[in-house]
């Protein structure tokens, strides 16, 4: 099969049929063999009924996955990726904001130009709210710096993947915003970008509010940390823990030694417990011990993590 189109959706009853017919038209024009996987993320409207209808009409082309409740876009993509059978996997929002006309070009970039992943770039956006465009620019600038991936629009819903990528990354939580970063960390570094058409939301309303920027930022930090130290926590915690312990230890030796020196000379010296340096050095030693312990516990956890040796072997002779 050439293409799997994965469509996560939450309460998008009005657009599903129109979207599928549009995809079908494009696929038939270009003679692609394809499947469309609708992942119904706990919709409370008629979305699932529409999917069942489409499946009855086009059993070869339409597949459906239904969640019992709303889990989020990332779990929806995860299950879609798991089910996909096509050589190229394309994700697309259900709200008709992404255009199926982009599919052929995306397919060729993956198959002919050998990209692992091609992300859409909504160069001209048609989102209703101003609160979306400006924060989004900021978000992308931060993401570019931290991830080192030069994408203008990391969170674009329209993306194309080589099959090997979706079978070797795991989207979870709200990490759908950073799939290119997940891919890069898994070793799929040939990541491209294509300017895509963006349209106004035709039906329904957006499912994401402002809190996505706060959460998105925290997720970015987690990913950065995981990538850097996730498999070797001691390299982070052990280092600063040891440093703090040593600083505290040296300081307390100095405090104690100067007290003893004063005593031996018969000079009056204050109680060590009246010196701030005493408390600072003790605090530093305790914090150092805790950090070291955190790193060590982290190492024990990593040792037991089932994915500790999940590396993607590209070829073997
Ligand atoms: N979506 C989903 N689960 C959710 C929220 C959103 O499957 O919990 C789907 C939604 O139906 C749409 C896509 O994710 O197909 C993108 O959502 P939306 O259009 O609301 O985001 P925006 O375009 O406003 O960023
Ligand atoms: Mg949308």
Question: What would you note in describing this structure?
Answer:
There is one protein chain. 49% of the residues lie in helices and 12% in strands. The protein is an alpha/beta fold and 317 residues long. The protein has two domains: 3-228, Spore Coat Polysaccharide Biosynthesis Protein SpsA, Chain A; 234-304. It has a seven-stranded mixed beta sheet, with helices on both faces. The longest helix has 32 residues, at 234-265. The mean pLDDT is 95. The structure holds uridine-5'-diphosphate (UDP) and magnesium ion. Residues 93, 95, 97, 201, 206 line the site of magnesium ion. Residues 8-10, 12, 41, 70, 72-73, 76, 93-95, 97, 157, 206-208 line the site of uridine-5'-diphosphate.
What order do the helices and strands come in, and which of them pair?
Elements: E1 3-9, H1 16-29, E2 34-40, H2 47-57, E3 62-66, H3 73-83, E4 88-91, H4 103-111, E5 117-121, H5 130-147, E6 159-162, H6 163-166, H7 179-185, E7 191-195, H8 211-229, H9 234-265, H10 276-304
Parallel strand pairs: 1-2, 1-4, 2-3, 5-7
Antiparallel strand pairs: 4-6, 5-6
Helix pairs in contact: 5-8, 9-10
The structure holds uridine-5'-diphosphate and magnesium ion (MG).
The site of uridine-5'-diphosphate (UDP) has 17 residues, from strand 1 and helix 3.
Q: What is the SS-derived class?
A: alpha/beta
- Small-molecule components bound: uridine-5'-diphosphate, magnesium ion
Q: If classified by CATH, what would the architecture of the largest domain be?
A: Alpha-Beta Complex
**Quaternary structure state of the chains depicted:** single chain
- The fourth-level CATH homologous superfamily of the largest domain is Spore Coat Polysaccharide Biosynthesis Protein SpsA, Chain A
What is the overall number of helices? 10
Q: What is the overall shape?
A: elongated
Strand content range: 5-15%
Which regions are unreliable across 5 or more consecutive residues at pLDDT < 50? none
Into how many domains do the coordinates divide?
2
Count the E strands: 7
Major sheet strand order: 3-2-1-4-6-5-7
SSE sequence, one letter per element: EHEHEHEHEHEHHEHHH
Distance between the termini: 27 Å
What percent of residues adopt helix (DSSP H or I)? 40-55%
Overall CATH class of the largest domain: Alpha Beta
Mean pLDDT: 95
User: For the CA atoms, what is the radius of gyration?
Assistant: 27 Å
The largest β sheet comes out as: 7 strands, mixed
């Amino acid at each position: 099969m050439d293409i799997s189109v994965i469509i996560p959706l939450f309460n998008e009853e009005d657009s599903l049929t129109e979207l599928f017919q549009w995809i079908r038209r494009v696929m038939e024009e270009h003679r692609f063999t394809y499947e469309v996987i609708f992942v119904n993320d706990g919709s409370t409207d008629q979305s699932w009924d529409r999917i069942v209808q489409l499946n009855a009409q086009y059993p070869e082309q339409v597949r459906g996955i239904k969640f019992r409740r709303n889990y989020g876009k990332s779990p929806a993509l995860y299950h879609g990726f798991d089910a996909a059978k096509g050589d190229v996997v394309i994700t697309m929002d259900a709200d008709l904001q992404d255009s199926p006309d982009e599919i052929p070009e995306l397919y060729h970039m993956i198959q002919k130009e050998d990209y692992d992943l091609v992300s859409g770039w909504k160069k001209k956006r048609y989102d209703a709210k101003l609160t979306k465009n400006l924060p989004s620019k900021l978000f992308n600038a931060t993401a570019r710096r931290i991830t080192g991936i030069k994408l203008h629009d990391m969170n674009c819903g329209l993306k194309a993947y080589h099959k090997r990528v979706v079978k070797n990354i795991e989207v979870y939580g709200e990490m759908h915003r950073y799939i290119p970063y997940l891919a890069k960390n898994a070793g799929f570094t040939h990541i491209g970008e294509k300017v895509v058409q963006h349209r106004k939301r035709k039906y329904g309303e957006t499912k994401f509010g402002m809190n996505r920027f706060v959460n998105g930022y925290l997720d970015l930090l987690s990913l950065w940390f995981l990538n850097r130290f996730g498999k070797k926590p001691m390299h982070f915690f052990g280092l600063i823990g040891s440093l703090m312990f040593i600083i505290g230890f040296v300081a307390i030796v100095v405090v104690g030694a100067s007290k003893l020196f004063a005593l031996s000379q018969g000079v009056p010296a204050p109680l060590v417990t009246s010196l701030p340096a005493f408390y600072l050095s003790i605090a530093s030693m305790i914090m150092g011990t805790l950090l070291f312990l955190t790193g060590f516990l982290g190492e024990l956890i990593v040792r037991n993590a089932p994915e500790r040796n999940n590396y993607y072997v590209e070829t073997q002779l």
